[in-house]
From TrEMBL:
SUPFAM superfamilies: Immunoglobulin (SSF48726)
Source organism (scientific name): Callorhinchus milii
Ig-like domain boundaries: 48-137, 141-230
Cytoplasm found in the keyword field: yes
Protein name per the record: CAVP-target protein-like protein
Chief location bin: cytoplasm
UniProt-listed InterPro entries: Cell_Adh-Cytoskel_Orgn (IPR050958), Ig-like_dom (IPR007110), Ig-like_dom_sf (IPR036179), Ig-like_fold (IPR013783), Ig_I-set (IPR013098), Ig_sub (IPR003599), Ig_sub2 (IPR003598), IQ_motif_EF-hand-BS (IPR000048)
Taxonomic classification: Eukaryota, Metazoa, Chordata, Craniata, Vertebrata
Tagged with keyword Cytoplasm: yes
Length: 232
């Protein structure tokens, strides 16, 4: 039986690649690498994960807001956005954004009070589904959408001046007569209900005639409107 020829190691290498121990070690290293790669692939394949949660966003009326979320998912997921439970379609008002490697976003354009609400993202693939949610908080300068109307009325009657208002944060509301704040009592008073404010004057008398002002104010601005009451 002829002896097995042993090749010399490559220049500069002190490892004998024909040494059975070296070959056995190489096999183990290669096997370990394949196992590591397989485990890595298994970790990547699975239900989506939220890497960075959505955060509440303040939207100024007329501007745009953006909700960002970092996700991890393989295979690639289906992304859907919802507002108060209703799905939002990608279009001019709501834009779905996808940025490498793992950022998805929703851009809400031309902000109005109707955009106030809870926004939810759904990330779904064949392994499962993940959700996250945040609020868009709308800030709108205080505004009088429709001011009170001038009134001519007989003494002894009840009169009401009504103004339609808006604003977010909710504005402070006040009424004045001839430049002085209205002193409320059982006969003269005002209330605020939703998007309107009403000044009521009962048992009208001559002294109630004058120029009335309604004003609204919040952290973003103020507005005012005037009306006149003439007592006949």
């Amino acid at each position: 039986m002829s002896a097995k020829k042993v090749l010399p190691p490559p220049p500069g290498c002190n490892i004998d690649i024909n040494d059975p121990k070296v070959q056995d070690a190489a096999i183990k290293i290669q096997s370990s690498y394949r196992g590591h790669r397989s485990r890595k692939e298994m970790r990547e394949k699975g239900p989506p994960k939220i890497l960075k949660e959505l955060k509440d966003v303040v939207l100024i009326e007329g501007s745009a807001a953006r909700l960002d979320c970092r996700v991890s998912a393989f295979p690639d997921p289906l992304i859907r956005w919802f507002k108060d439970g209703q799905e939002l379609k990608d279009g001019p008002k709501y834009r779905y954004m996808f940025e490498d490697p793992d950022v998805v976003a929703l851009v809400v354009r031309d902000g109005t009070l109707s955009d106030l609400g809870k926004y939810t993202i759904s990330i779904k693939n064949t392994f499962g589904e993940a959700y996250d949610a945040a609020k868009i908080i709308i800030e709108v300068p205080a505004k009088i959408k429709k001011g009170p109307e001038n009134i001519k009325i007989r003494a002894g009657k009840t009169v009401q001046l009504v103004a339609m208002i808006s604003g977010e944060p909710e504005p402070d509301v006040g009424w004045a007569k001839d430049g002085l704040d209205v002193d409320e009592d059982n006969r003269v008073f005002y209330d605020i209900q939703g998007d309107s404010t009403t000044l009521t004057i009962k048992n009208l008398c001559a002294e109630d005639a004058g120029r009335y002002e309604v004003f609204v104010e919040n952290s973003l601005g103020m507005d005012q409107s005037f009306a006149r009451i003439d007592v006949l």
